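ARCHIVE CARD
Drawer: 12
Card no.: 0347
Subject: one protein chain, sequence and derived structure
Cross-reference: see card 0346
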Amino acid sequence: MLHVILHNPKIPQNTGNIGRMCAVLGARLHLVHPLGFAITDAKLKRSGMDYWKSLDVAHHADWEAFKRSPLAPPAGRIWLFTTKSRTCFWDAKFERGDGLLFGSEDCGCPESVHADICERRVKIPHLADSLRSLNLSTSAGIAAYEAARRILASEGAKLEFGKNFF
């Protein structure tokens, strides 16, 4: 199983869209609180549509609670996607069970999280440093599908549409 981890997301539409993507991909979504919205927010439900009821979602009170959770991926298998890295995510060696961690839309992950994941920080490449970053849900989609593609290829697996490949 692939894990998508959102640390303190602020925009319900992004989280809803990422939840929908996780449901379609068969990935578990981890929401590390606090959230910038109520989980009952209409914008979250609208963007996640009826896919939310099929979603494997885990809520964690904070980063420390996430790290202790039996539902979380192992600490050494979490990739932090950040604009602060100089390592391209194309160089990451994704494995089944990995976690893809994304910080909040306005400020990313706090330094304490960076310290926990210092060896596995990666960046999605973009044209110029003056163009800061992509939208959170776009980044999560790029990362999750690239990780899934590489994991399946490394296992010699073939994608069968309509079947859960994680």
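Annotation on reverse: The beta strands are 3-7, 28-32, 56-60, 78-81, 99-102, 121-122. The mean pLDDT is 91.
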